[in-house]
UniProtKB/TrEMBL annotation:
It holds the Pfam family FSH1. This is Serine hydrolase domain-containing protein. Residues 15-258 form the Serine hydrolase domain. One of its GO terms (molecular function) is hydrolase activity. InterPro entries: AB_hydrolase_fold, FSH-like_dom, LovG. One of its GO terms (biological process) is secondary metabolite biosynthetic process. It comes from the Eukaryota. Keywords: Hydrolase.
Amino acid sequence: MPSIPSTIPDSKSLPRILCLHGGGVNATIFETQSRSLIRHLQHSFRLVWADGPFLCDPHSDIISVYGSYAPFRRWLRWLPEHTDIGAESCIEELGYAMKTAMEDDDREGGTGEWVGLMGFSQGAKLSASLLLEQQAREDKAQREGTQVETDLIGIPDINWRFGILLAGRAPLSNLNPTIMKSKALVSAANISEGFQFCDSVNDDVILRKPTLHVHGMADAGLHLHRKLLADYCEDGTTTLVEWEGAHRIPIKSKDVDPVIDAIYDLAEGSGVAVTRTV
């Protein structure tokens, strides 16, 4: 049976996953919360932890443990007091924050291909939205017989192959309103809470990129996680792992191992070699 190797490899040349935290936390907290996932994934991937561009108050769920880990950040608005700077400016700030983390990792010696996105909560929504934005640009290029345009991050030739969505909610955010016009997407400037869902999602904004969905059965947002999976992702492109937990990242082996196994399947299905540890 596979097991976790005793030696941690030099990760500089490993394929890279960009990790996007939830709202009201930050990259350091997300990395700490993901420690049980990291024990496995660090043998196959270089994990890069990005900080959201906007400062905010800490999420109420993390104050007791991580209250001293300020500053706290967000990617998108979820409360009325979060300043509305407009969709264009928001998208620009999102891209700049992710580009900064990716270029910082280049300077730190990372050379592996950027292959995947992993996000929790708001970071999972953003990860899926980034995959959809890439898909929209690819579809446009195919229709017009042109090259695929560079994305909001602004680094040429990035090809996200898969997304690991930990407690990701519908609706997806529109990160390229020039191409995508669907009312099934929420503007990057707007709050998702209270969003008026369409009866059906347009085919052109249904995500076809491979995604893993990790749902906690005691999560208060479970119905929205299920809606993301069922309504916004194409049948046959998704994998679902359910576990008996609330709105947090699995820590115990009995909960973590099925997630890790599914990540390995997802990566290998996308042409990325892994070192299996479960």
